[in-house]
User: Fold these one by one.
Assistant:
Number 1:
Amino acid sequence: AYNIGDNPQFRLEVDASAGAVWVLLTRHITQIDDFRENTEYITVLVYKNEGNRVYYPNDPPPYIDGVRINSPHYLCKIILSETSPRKFTLVVSQYEKMHTINYTLRAYATCPFTLSKIQNPYTYTEQVTDGQWKGVTAGGCRNHPSTYPYNPRYRVTLDTTDCTNQLAIDLKGPKQYQMGVEVTIVSLADDTVTAPFKAKSSGAYRSGFVIMELQNVPAGVYEIVPSTFYPNQE
């Protein structure tokens, strides 16, 4: 699997009525040689994802999985019924990241709509680049209770009075290993706040990387435990 979270993504919101939306992606071509030998394959992926950012290309599966074409234009049509979702996520994608491309994304519809870029809500970043599972710290997942506690542990402190924080954890590792993350609340800054969870996992273990997003996170201290699925995977 690969991460499409860094691809340009847009939120499409349509009114609650039947109709259709056409989405047109146009790649800017500024040199004649580029036009003669167009090796850039582009497309737009459409997700029924409430207009939220998409990280895994097939979770959820795309509603429209656009064919990658080496044309300057890609056009897709979203047909809407009275019961269709009102919010979609549009992901601009290349077949391979060969060069930086400039493009224009347009939408045309038979009903009112808005199209806006999905912004990155995370203004503070911390990164651990020397993390490793090695020896006893390669404890595997919770299916292995005798070794799981020895996995690496990290603490994050949300130093704010806000209870609507957003927290994202991005774990990358060897592609041959399936990995996951668990977050546990150590303490909350405000004792009167109800904890949204005691412990929360990233779900199914994934090969190479996993993304975990938490919404409405109160200020406090949180412990992060990354793990591979099996013990002794170093």
Number 2:
Amino acid sequence: MAHFTLYVLKGLWGPNPIKVAALLESLNLDYDVKALEFGSSDKATGVKGEDYLAICVNGRTPTLIDHKRNDFTVWESGAILEYILDVYDTEHKFSGKTPEEKALISQWLFFQVTGHSPVQGNLYFSNVYWKNAYQEEVPPTVIKRFSTELDRVYKVYEKQLSAQFAKYGEDKAWLVLDRPTAADFSAMGWLGLLPDIKDKLGVNTEQYPVLMKYVEKLRAQEGLAKVFAKLQH
């Protein structure tokens, strides 16, 4: 049995499981993947099924089970990242070394999970799934709301990353420090997918040149690159 079991969505896993897998890969922690059917309530295979709801009452992915710590189970991607780093990043390769570093990392991690992820996810859903889900065209005001907010979020990233690039140089700059942290892994899900889904989002990425340089850094990060390679097979 592998050290961990990571629950993902069947197919492309979903942006939030991707970020967890990237951190596990980066720390050389072995894990098995259990893929669930999106939207299904099948007892054994559905993300809304009885078996999965018994370990994740929220019925969303990811969920991580740590088999070397009495099958400790945790869900919500930000909480999973923090757990992995608290327990297994003993050299602080990707975690904060001081209270100040830890606070700044948490600041940007929470910005990603509460401010960025929901709005990009909602815009993607509205453009791709709304019509089939509700049997109607998506109202233009819905697209405007999420597009406007996503633009605001991207501009926050653009400003922060511009300051980081100026401070550390393009090669060393990451979202918070001069090395990748939990905040960067949290961003790897939706931002890592951005070049592949920008047209479905209706986003002109040329408006965010520094952000897109950062996105390429994320996609080249060893752990995420390994995850994307697995998704191709």
Number 3:
Amino acid sequence: LYYGFWLIEVDPKSFDSTGGGDCLLSTVSVGPLMIPSMTLVCLLVALGSNASVTADAKAAMAAASSLFERIDRVSELNPFSKDGMKPKGVNGAIRVQDVCFAYPSHPDYHVCRQYSLSVKAGSVCALVGPSGSGKSTLVALLLRFYDPFSGVILIDGFDIRNVNLAWLRRQFGYVGQEPTLFHGTVADNIRMGKTLATPEQVQAAAKDA
């Protein structure tokens, strides 16, 4: 705006000794006078638009902070650990004895309380029950996504906590209720569990699932 007012000239002859006088506009075109005004308008519009973006940016920063906190969190169960026994073979006999468990997000609600189950090797077992009764939880415990608070889970007589975690999970074929597909082909997704699997092994795994 200062530039616009600077373009307005004051006729010094029009001032009297008392300091009064008239301001006279010089012969200046309208264009130069409009430049500072329009610049200010554009600046205010830009600032107004950035106000909403700032709120979104703060929300995005908060979400990103939570996301990176989860990514950086170290799991208590290291799937790449070399510790634990690796039995030469597996028959598939499963025994769950007096297992108690509650999810960390709801520590006061015990999904499994003194839960026991025996499944013979080579047999087919169906777990039937209402939502929240512990069907999926039992599978998560078998794969050691979690460890029970108390009790023991045995496979062929071996406590799964003493078995190498990577070896244990390779013995299972798991299809979740809501499977998530990564970018790539179906074969690429199947190979997530065994990156060096041959096409024949991939096809066999798909048929078994």
